[in-house]
Amino acid sequence: MSAKPAADPIFAARDQGAAAFALIEELYPICRSITGPGVTATLDIIERFVPLKRTQVPTGTKVFDWEVPREWTIRDAFIKNAAGDRVVDFKKHNLHVVSYAVPLRAKMSRAELEPYLYSIPENPDWIPYRTSYYCESWGFCVSQRQREALGDGPFEVEIDSDLKPGVLTYGEALLKGETAEEVLIYTHICHPSLCNDNLSAIAVACLLAQRLAARTHGLSYRFIFGPVTIGSITWLAMNEARVANIRHGLVLASLGDRGALTYKRSRRGDAEIDRILGFLAETGRVGAIEDFSPYGYDERQFCSPGFNLPVGRLTRTPNARYAEYHTSADDLDFVTSEALGDSLAALETIIAIIELNARYINLAPKCEPRLGPRGIFRNTGGRNPSEFEHAILWVLNQSDGGPDLLSIAAKSKLSFSLIAEAATALAEAGLLARV
Ligand code: ZN
How far is the CA of 65 from the centre of ligand 1 (A)? Predict the structure, then answer.
């Protein structure tokens, strides 16, 4: 944490934005959904970064109030006009077919086709993203311009898909630390060609897992890559006995857009992860903090009242608050290497605080101990000694087993790394013990 930027994972993470972007480029063409071959292909790519344990849960398995759905495979889909031209072609864009569309082969008029077309009149070049996971349906998503140019038909409409009993698959990587207490990191992997939501989070999570796997850490880190909603519900149903180990958690999504980092608190609101992100917002590292709301991504399941886990959500611009959300405009131009690198660096900062934050007790609490003879100020490495001295005095004064280092950093307005460095120096000098 001290003045060695080259070796500091937080500084080094920022340079990984280009690698995250390259991974998004590789994932972009795959047509993903909540089940099916796109999920497998995505997990195969993730596995290059971190070894995964895959769990396959059969269709029909009861998971709390839900059931694992049938598995969806899409091979082709198109609308052909009277001249036989593919005027809407799934092979040109994954978003053209409604995700989970049932198989279909039909001839129809424009009027018959019309209720099954989705477009965005206010953004006439964009294709919307639509799903029908839990009700049997079909449809085509098109740009408004395509829709207007379709003509009257008749049309040949085909969706070459399967919706059959199969499995729901999620992958997880458990990076064991010195303790069994876990940090849970959940990323959904079910969206097709949408870069911010959600390829950005997959890419950042892959790089973070790879970096963490290469070094030692105190806590264990569990990365889960699964479909949105049904994935976290299924994981919770299969792992109910494990959740007591979860000490901190983050749902990651939308980490590549140009907006500021936004943290949504856990339902508890005052969990340590909420306090860490609150501290980072106060110091300007995170742009905005929001209270929990039961709308969004998989934090809804982790923070359902029966679990109420200390799991918050980290995004840049939150879902549904940018026009490109769930449209073809959430493409490779919408995400940047800089934003991805910044998101990864922020996660490294959060992990550094998670790892170092602790409560200490002052072992010489009656008046101030003499610091000079203990050599505490000798190893400050050129840092302004008065700032470090302040950190030492704050840590000594506040360490009665109550406030943790994060509280002391917030109260003193000193950086967390300086407070942590002071605590380490005091512990080494025998003046402080970890509670
Ligand atoms: Zn989404």
Answer: 22
The rounded Å distance from CA 320 to ligand 1 centre is 8
Helical (H) or strand (E) element with 53? strand 53-58
Q: How many CB atoms lie within 10 A of CB 84?
A: 7
pLDDT tens digits in sequence order for the chain, 435 residues long: 444 444 577 888 889 999 999 999 999 999 999 999 999 999 999 999 999 999 999 999 999 999 999 999 999 999 999 999 999 999 999 999 999 999 999 999 999 999 999 999 999 999 999 999 999 999 999 999 999 999 998 999 999 999 999 999 999 999 999 999 999 999 999 999 999 998 999 999 999 999 999 999 999 999 999 999 999 999 999 999 999 999 999 999 999 999 999 999 999 999 999 999 999 999 999 999 999 999 999 999 999 999 999 999 999 999 999 999 999 999 999 999 999 999 999 999 999 999 999 999 999 999 999 988 888 875 555 555 688 999 999 999 999 999 999 999 999 999 999 999 999 999 999 999 999
Distance 190 CA to ligand 1 centre (A): 8
284 CA distance to ligand 1 middle (Å): 27
| Residue ranges of the chain assigned to CATH 3.50.30.90 | 72-164
Maximum CA pair distance of the chain?
92
Q: In this structure, what token pair is assigned to residue 157? A: 């409409």
pTM: 0.95
Q: How much distance in Å is there from the Cα of 193 to the middle of ligand 1?
A: 11
CA of 198 to the centre of ligand 1 (A): 7
CA distance 172 to 175: 10
How many A from CA of 359 to the centre of ligand 1?
39
User: How would CATH label the architecture of 72-164?
Assistant: 3-Layer(bba) Sandwich (3.50)
Q: How far is the CA of 405 from the centre of ligand 1 (A)?
A: 36
How far, in Å, from the CA of 258 to the mean position of ligand 1? 17
CATH 1.10.10.10 occupies which residues in the chain?
359-434
In angstroms and rounded to an integer, the radius of gyration of the C-alpha atoms of the chain is: 25
Q: What's the 30 CA to ligand 1 centre distance in angstroms?
A: 16
E strand or H helix at 410: helix 405-412
Q: Classify domain 359-434 at the CATH topology level.
A: Arc Repressor Mutant, subunit A (1.10.10)
Give CATH 3.40.630.10 domain extents, the chain: 9-68+167-356
Calculate how far, in angstroms, residue 419's C-alpha sits from the geometric centre of ligand 1: 39
CATH topology for the 9-68+167-356 domain: Aminopeptidase (3.40.630)
